[in-house]
Amino acid sequence: MERRHGNLRLLRADTTTVIAGPLTDLLALTYGPAAVLPPLFQPIPGIEEAYIYGSWAARHAHQPGPPPQDVDVLVVGSADDDTLYDAARTAERTLGREVNVTRISSESWTDSAPDPFVTSVRNKPLYPLISKERDS
Length: 136
Hints:
CATH superfamily: Beta Polymerase, domain 2
Low-confidence stretches: none
CATH topology: Beta Polymerase, domain 2
Strand content: 25-35%
Radius of gyration: 18 Å
Distance between the termini: 44 Å
Number of helices: 5
Shape: elongated
């Protein structure tokens, strides 16, 4: 749909078409979490680093597989669990999918002999949301 307002040409998607739903899903799948999560998590004190991992990060890295049903977020640092939970619930409402947050200490993340979870996460695709360089 289109309308003019002065020199502006305003466009609106026709959400009644048969392709509107799948196209919306595709855009949310590919760009949604990357756009939605950083502004929610960056202001939270105690986050040193944060990443999307799991199936969303794998699809973003072009690894084959089914579309992600949820978004897994790894937070490194000492952020308050309740604050992280609140940010995840806000993201869920925007994204229309579950957002799971796992917080680990910076020591666990940098340990030369990490636990199996950290090893697994490090050996698979990660999509950075917040990096150590953010305050540089």
